[in-house]
């Protein structure tokens, strides 16, 4: 396993996938962290790589991910490439002794994700799933209130994720062989993860998916094969704790643009009170007790970022900048030689539930999840 040694050594990170997610979230987050250095990038698009080389201040770019996964002078990789590439890249990185953070969904099925987790565990490297919204301040505070008992016994979880996206092509994302699924794997899987994080394992689910937009044209008007993945997904779940949950996601909710962030509502109803996280105002939480209405409260300062994070919560768009703390957790886990949270195992448990939604839709029946992976 490649490791830097000594307090003056930085964690040398390679970015696999130089697209928008890396540019908006991962690279800015790493550049805030004095313990980390972005040293290389890989992408299939040579023109994009040339641009990122200049924009990110890199000396090393390549279209061959194996080159970076085997390089002795790279300590970690962040994978932000199409879903169908994740397994091979993560396994190659682990076998090369690299710590790995990977975008969600980790794979196109739980089987692929298990291979990734097993490879990282065998190699003894840090592995992390990029479940970004766990780092939203209101979500962090909601978790605190729940664990502290402030909401009483949790009874209901409720999630809505509504986006108003164009009905043109999603590129690789609209094909099952490349993406695995659509909205379910791209968006709803995040909400499955933080429901498990908040309320514990899900015992069984019933669910459904649907596709409304054919997506037969690219944004510039060229024809393309129609989409074969969902643009709406929903599920009902029963938790092992006895709580219940309802999730709905869509990319076709007209009028829910919200400056590109869309509508997100994640709610816990407990025996003593309710709390709501919303993406477009992540530094504010809604709280309510019996006999009162939900009302907004600022998230206390100590929950606006992880302890030690160099990020200034007063700077930048709140719905964007909390995402930088994902990189902070990844680097912290490497430096402190501890597991990252959320790990590939967390990604696997969420994927098992998402896969069960597809199985439920196909069979028109409830599906048992089984015991969570550890």
Produce a short descriptive summary.
By secondary structure, this protein is of the alpha/beta class. Helices cover 32% and strands 22% of the residues.
| DSSP strand tally | 15
| CATH evolutionary superfamily of the largest domain | Dihydrodipicolinate Reductase, domain 2
**Could you estimate the helical fraction of the residues in percent?**
25-40%
Q: Please state how the strands of the largest beta sheet are arranged side by side.
A: 14-13-12-11-7-10-9-8-15
Overall structural class, as computed from helix and strand content, comes to alpha/beta
Number of helices: 11
At the first level of CATH, what is the class of the largest domain?
Answer: Alpha Beta
The figure for the number of domains is 2
Residue windows where pLDDT falls under 50 for at least 5 positions: 1-6
Radius of gyration: 20 Å
| CATH architecture assignment of the largest domain | 2-Layer Sandwich
For the biggest sheet, the summary is: 9 strands, mixed
| Percent of residues in β-strands | 15-25%
Could you give the distance between the termini?
A: 22 Å
H/E element order: EHEHEHEHEHEHEHHEEEEEEEHHHE
Shape: globular
Do you know the CATH topology of the largest domain? Answer: Dihydrodipicolinate Reductase, domain 2
Describe this structure in words.
The structure is a single chain. The protein folds into two domains: 11-132, NAD(P)-binding Rossmann-like Domain (Rossmann fold); 134-319 and 349-368, Dihydrodipicolinate Reductase, domain 2. 32% of the residues lie in helices and 22% in strands. It contains eleven helices and 15 strands. The strands form two sheets. Strands 14-13-12-11-7-10-9-8-15 form a nine-stranded mixed β-sheet. The protein has a six-stranded parallel β-sheet with strand order 3-2-1-4-5-6, sandwiched between helices. The radius of gyration is 20 Å and the shape is globular.
